[in-house]
Amino acid sequence: MRIEAYTQVQQLYNTKKAVKTPAAANAGVSDKIQISSIGRDIQVAKAAVDASSDIREELVAPIRAGIENGTYHVSGESFAEKLLQQYEEISGL
Predict the structure, then answer these.
(1) Cα of 93 vs its chain's centroid, Å
(2) 9 in Cβ contact with 3 (< 8 Å)
(3) In whole angstroms, what is the distance from residue 5 CA to residue 14 CA?
(4) Residues 6 or more apart from 63 whose CB is under 8 A from it?
(5) 37-53, pLDDT tens digit by residue?
(6) For the residues of 9-60, what is the DSSP string, one character each?
(7) Which among 61, 41, 44, 64 has a CA at the least distance from the CA of 52?
């Protein structure tokens, strides 16, 4: 098989060299991000929540001591009232 137009075929395979990349034209352009003041406030609040403890020891310590000493008692009536309050809040959604 004989190829008559060798230079034309060679040009087809050398197309990568001739194509200019558009990224080179935009080399000076960069992306920037700005966070709004509300976004910064949310970040500060989230950092404060992350830094705080999940357990409020000033409330838990007396209850824990009462349980360990055997002096902590919960009446059935107050437990039932709290349980009904929670149920009403959940069912009201």
Answers:
(1) 26
(2) yes
(3) 15
(4) 72
(5) 998 999 999 999 988 88
(6) HHHHHTHHHHPPPHHHHTTT--------HHHHHHHHHHHHHHHS-SS-HHHH
(7) 44
Q: Can you give the pLDDT at residue 15?
A: 59
Q: What is the CA 1 to chain-centroid distance, rounded?
A: 64
**Cβ(72)–Cβ(66) under 8 Å?**
yes
Instruction: Give the integer Cα–Cα distance in Å for 47 and 35.
Output: 16
Stated as kind and residue range, the H or E segment containing 63 is helix 57-69
Q: What is the pLDDT of residue 54?
A: 85
Question: What count of residues does the chain have?
Answer: 93
Q: Given CA atoms 76, 79, 85, 88 in this order, what sign does their dihedral have?
A: negative
User: Residue 35 in contact with residue 43, Cβ under 8 Å?
Assistant: yes
